[in-house]
Structure formats: structure tokens, C-alpha cells
TrEMBL record:
One of its GO terms (biological process) is thiamine biosynthetic process. Pathway: Cofactor biosynthesis; thiamine diphosphate biosynthesis. GO terms for molecular function: ATP binding; hydroxymethylpyrimidine kinase activity; phosphomethylpyrimidine kinase activity. This is hydroxymethylpyrimidine kinase. It comes from Acetobacter nitrogenifigens DSM 23921 = NBRC 105050. InterPro entries: HMP/HMP-P_kinase_dom, PM/HMP-P_kinase-1, Ribokinase-like.
Amino acid sequence: MTAITALTAQNTVGVFGVVETPPEFLRTQIRCVLDDIGTDAFKSGMLGGADNIAVVAEEIAAYRTVPFVLDPVMIAKGGAALLHDNAVDALIGVLMPLATVITPNIPEAERLIGRRIVDERDMVEAGRQVCALGASAVLVKGGHLPGTILTDVLIADGVEEAFTAPRIETRHTHGTGCTLASAIATRLAQGRSLRDAVADARAYLRAAIESAPGYGAGAGPLNHGVAITEIARG
Ligand SMILES: Nc1ncnc2c1ncn2[C@@H]1O[C@H](COP(=O)(O)OP(=O)(O)O)[C@@H](O)[C@H]1O
Ligand SMILES: Cc1ncc(COP(=O)(O)O)c(N)n1
């Protein structure tokens, strides 16, 4: 179930317009789904601004036993801003403390800690710093670093784990991070540990990239309908 935080006019080439949902309407959407159907996990993505961040935090705060995957979406692949710069403090201050895990990519982690990240050692250090800001766990995603091997670093309960895999040569990577965060939330909803949820989500993401339909002139969408049987456990 979805509560729409913003409308975007976008395709594989870029984001051409954004209309943010009025905060009280976002609140109504969230209440509609939670009061009626309920949820086994939360995942947030693009939030737009501090007002919508406050609404999400207020509405999910009562569900402390429900896992929450916070994908701190800030900038689209094409460069469009998806979070107001002045909303980063609200994201750190009011949403991060509620999250089971926060999943920044390299530019987002750099923005959270105010320092450049150029290699895996920096990713680990950045992850530790994000935890020091108040995150329970962090998955620093390495897709934006160069190289033929991609690494994501999970830090949870003070334990670090690096997940590595070869980069798939493709331009069809629209929403890779969004897909990963949603898949992690799905596995957490099914009761798996965070570590196993990340491993399974990475396997699903990989299969979804490998079978991407190839639409559009830019970064095309993934195949979210990839059959679960095609996924080898990561
Ligand atoms: N070309 C690729 N091949 C395989 N995995 C990829 C590729 N691009 C991204 N990924 C994986 O997708 C996930 C999200 O990618 P990343 O680019 O780091 O974040 P975002 O999509 O949020 O910008 C990470 O797990 C990363 O390792
Ligand atoms: C609504 C929305 N959320 C997130 C992204 C980031 O995805 P990407 O980094 O692939 O552009 C996006 N383009 N649009």
C-alpha cells in the first residue's frame, strides 16, 4: 500500500516536474491504509520537504514494533532534487531515530556526514558516522563508486558486513536503490533478520536489473515482476 508523498513527471531521461502532496492530505492517506488494513513494514522514499517528513514521523511513531526502512532519497539519477536541502536536518532528527535501517547511496551518505567518500574504507567510516547520528543500522550503497565490483556496507549492532557483486553492464538502473529498500522492507515484514533481508533483497535486485525490459532512451526501469524462482540467494 502506498501513500503518495509527491507527484513527479519523469521518464528514463530525467525528472521534469514535482508537485508535493499537501502534508495534511499525506496524513489522511497514511491513516486510510493503516486504520483499515495495517502494515507489517514501512518503507519511505522521496519525501520532498520537512513538513511531509514531520507528518510521516508523527503517523508511524505509534508503530515502534513495525520495521521501517528509511531510504533517504535526495537527488534523482538525472540530478533533480527530490528533497529540499533544508529538510535534511528534519530527516536526521525526526525520521532516522524511528528507522530500523537507513539506506543512503554515496552522495546521500556524503550529505548526511558532510565528507567525501571515495572507497570502501570511507563507506565503513561513513556508516559508523551515520550510526553516531542516531541510526540503528545503516546500509551504505556503493553503486556510485567506480569499478567492476560493487560493494554495499551494512553496519548493524556495531557489526560491519560488506556485500559484493560484479557490476552489471547496463544503463537500466532507474530506481535501483528504491527497489532495494522496498525489497528489504518486504523481507523484514516476513520476519527475516536485517542481514538476511539485505542479502535476499540484493539477490532480487540483481535479478530485476538483469531482466530489465530495456525501455526508454535513458536509465530504464527494472523488472519488478521477476519470478522469485529465478533468484539465487545472495
Ligand atoms: N550496474 C549495477 N549492477 C549491479 N548492481 C547495481 C548496479 N547499479 C547499482 N547496483 C546496486 O543497486 C543498489 C543501489 O545502487 P546505488 O546506485 O548505490 O543507489 P541508488 O540507486 O539509491 O542511487 C546497490 O545495492 C548497488 O550495489
Ligand atoms: C519519485 C522518485 N523517487 C526516487 C527516485 C530516485 O531514483 P533514481 O536514483 O534511479 O533516479 C526517482 N527518480 N523518483
